[in-house]
Amino acid sequence: MSKLNITIIGLGLIGGSIGLSLKEGLQSQAILTGWDNNRGVREMSLQRKAVDRVSSSLSDAVKAADIVFLCTPILQMMPIVECIAPVMKQGAILTDVGSTKRFISDKIAQMLPVGIEYVGGHPMAGSEQSGIVAADKDLFRNKSYILVDCLKTSPAAMFTIHSLITITGALITTMDMEKHDLYAALASHVPHVTAAALVNLLDHVGEPEGLQLAGGGFRDTTRIAGSDADMWADICLSNCDAVADGLKKLQELLGEVIFAAQSSDREALYSFFSKAKQRRASITSSLVPN
């Protein structure tokens, strides 16, 4: 029985974690090849055993691949697909891990030759740490992994990617592009922007000793502000409508709090915090424990 050839393009936190997880789950059933534009990252991925081999050439990395995972920042994906599409073999499947879908899915599908399929994906997992050094084989366990339902994707290709992602322990959900981008904005993108804004708000603290008041609450609320800036700039640009809409709604809510505080409306303030507490309890009770 021939081994499955899997290539991972982009060996950061997500790409490295996919490699570690699939290597553990597939053992000798697959050969994993990695590519990254950083030589040090390629070397580290071998040291960490996230892949079996690496290549400095994109063409060499994908030419024998049955499955290609595209794990770069969003705005780097299209130029890479343009480069690899002509050399990918017939029957190969390309899947990505991009946090936004409408911006890239149609473009990628149109760039691929007949006989090569595309399955859009998005693991709802991450860390405030980044890079191959932070890669974790259990990163996706009990976390949502979205596969995008696209008319151009065959059931066979969807089944193949679904089967591979199952190995990581992720909880797989299928949805269309529009719903994905809306839900991702509200559940992930807007919170990341908000966390970064809270950290940047400290620039307005005139005295350094004021920072001594930043304790556990500040640390917990702003943990995700330590995520990769390059990735999040791309996400905001590629999902700008949904992110902007979510931030405007957040702005309206904050405006209501400002008005209630300045009006000494304790009832409105109590209602704001009480509703949030109850809603959060309802949401967290339905989540699968890590």
Automatic annotation (TrEMBL):
The answer on whether this UniProt entry bears the keyword Oxidoreductase reads: yes
Keyword Nucleus listed? The answer is: no
Query: Which residues belong to any copy of the Prephenate/arogenate dehydrogenase domain?
Result: 4-290
Biological process GO annotation list?
tyrosine biosynthetic process
Keyword terms, alphabetized: Oxidoreductase
Checking InterPro entries in the record gives: 6-PGluconate_DH-like_C_sf, NAD(P)-bd_dom_sf, PDH_C, PDH_N, Preph/Arog_dehydrog, Prephen_DH
Question: What Enzyme Commission number(s) apply to this enzyme?
Answer: 1.3.1.43
Which Pfam families does this one have?
A: PDH_C, PDH_N
Q: Which GO terms describe its molecular function?
A: cyclohexadienyl dehydrogenase activity; NAD+ binding; prephenate dehydrogenase (NAD+) activity; prephenate dehydrogenase (NADP+) activity
State what protein this is by name.
Cyclohexadienyl dehydrogenase
Q: Which organism is it from?
A: bioreactor metagenome
Originating gene:
tyrC_5
